[in-house]
Amino acid sequence: MIETDILIAGGGIAGMSAAARFAADGHRIMIVDPAPADIGEGTDLRTTAFLQPGIDTLKKAGVWDAIKPTGAELRVMRIVDAGGTEMTPRETADFDGAETTQGFFGWNVSNKAARVSLMAKLETLPNVDFRFSTTVTGFTGTARYGEATLSGGETVRAKLVVAADGRNSSLREFAGIKHRRWAYDQSALVFVVTHDKPHDNISTEIHRTGGPLTLVPMPDLNGKPCSSVVWMTPADRAQQLYNMDDATLSAEITRDTMSMFGPLTVASPRAVWPMISQVPSRLISARLALVAEAAHVVPPIGAQGLNMSLHDIETLADLMAKAKLKGEDIGATTLLKSYERKQLPKTLARVGGIDLLNRASMFEPRTLRDLRYAGLTAINRIGPLRKLAIKVGVGK
Fold this sequence. Notes:
Layout: E1 2-9, H1 13-24, E2 29-32, E3 47-51, H2 52-60, H3 64-67, E4 72-74, E5 76-81, E6 91-96, E7 106-110, H4 111-123, E8 128-131, E9 136-141, E10 146-150, E11 155-163, H5 170-174, E12 179-195, E13 202-207, E14 213-221, E15 224-234, H6 235-243, H7 246-256, E16 264-266, E17 271-280, E18 284-285, E19 288-290, H8 305-325, H9 333-361, H10 366-381, H11 383-393
Parallel strand pairs: 1-2, 1-11, 2-8, 5-13, 11-19
Antiparallel strand pairs: 3-7, 4-7, 5-6, 9-10, 10-11, 12-15, 12-16, 12-17, 13-14, 14-15, 18-19
Helix pairs in contact: 1-4, 1-8, 2-8, 8-9, 10-11
């Protein structure tokens, strides 16, 4: 029998961020993940744009200073509508970080670099026990503790169990929490490119049909400006692009970005991710809280995914810190209900909003593309709408 304050299932970026954040408040943490200990940087080719609220959480976790130097500042969020009869920009909306209180929107970091920094941090924390090659095989919540069995045969009793074990969460299933999932017949192709023109710390999102094509600033690569690409497109098209050789894919993305960056050169392997959205019916059960992709899955629009996860973690951390200060139970039903009241409406609103944005980005009929163009024009040129867009853009 192992006893701890918090058991976290899932050692991805969200799970490790939760461990570091909760450990900073003095809680004893056990975190388990099925990956082997020698996973190193992993194989995730994606990047994450950390927005200011998420950065604040990582600062409290004591890891942001290590993550920041590996990424690039997002100073401007540029949205380009190219949905006219010709493949050319017809409306460009620049949302400048100078219009925010912190002067920038966020920081784009490779998932590999974030993972390495988080793992290094957790290794230094005496109140964190990280168990690799380990999964939760059973869970029961009681009035006094959450009891989980592990794949190695151990039993863990914790005041709180946190499910950060992904979209196919086993803990969510053990707790009997239902969820709704829907697909888009759309995939995201992710890879890295270099280009001649500097990105000037501008994140560029191009809309035509099938989904947004986004280039996000990265640090220079081999002396050349570099950007990470998230190319959302119908699933068949994504597979065609994936199967191209580097030279053909480079020419294809240069054409679809309308040479805004000059010639683009593929500079990494590529990966394809099917697009889905997902929400649960509840965020809690006895002694259990869902966070990150166990609680919500969205397409990668507006950098919301992992930033929503960090918001889950910060909300839970804040509630537990207040309970600990009062000598109260950090896994009590009243605390978990407060967490759900705070997060579930926000989760449903964000998932629904991103779903609408994604469907709008996929418009093929000319009339619908013109409607999208009119909406972007209004947001860009009408002051109150612009301020609201900037507020949402920084994750607030």
